[in-house]
């Protein structure tokens, strides 16, 4: 059995104003993110399926040409290889869940 306290994990800045912690299993991983208002990574895509859960705050998500604003309690599904971006409209806490695991984030987070 593999368990951790997510709050005790290393925190890494993945983009200006974006802090991330993470935990990975064999085929699934979760990241815990904190965005400062106005912060967000550049538009990107990856072959991993992603789900995002907003814990607090509001963020605008762009998937392809579609835009939507999500707030605490909202979830979004991001299919593989779709260009997407999130920008925090307020300070935001969220979780991203990926399958399969992302080797790039595992390395960056030192997992």
From TrEMBL:
Highest rank taxon of the organism: Bacteria
Pfam family name, one: Cupin_2
Cupin type-2 domain ranges (all copies): 35-98
Stored Gene3D superfamilies: Jelly Rolls
Protein name: Cupin type-2 domain-containing protein
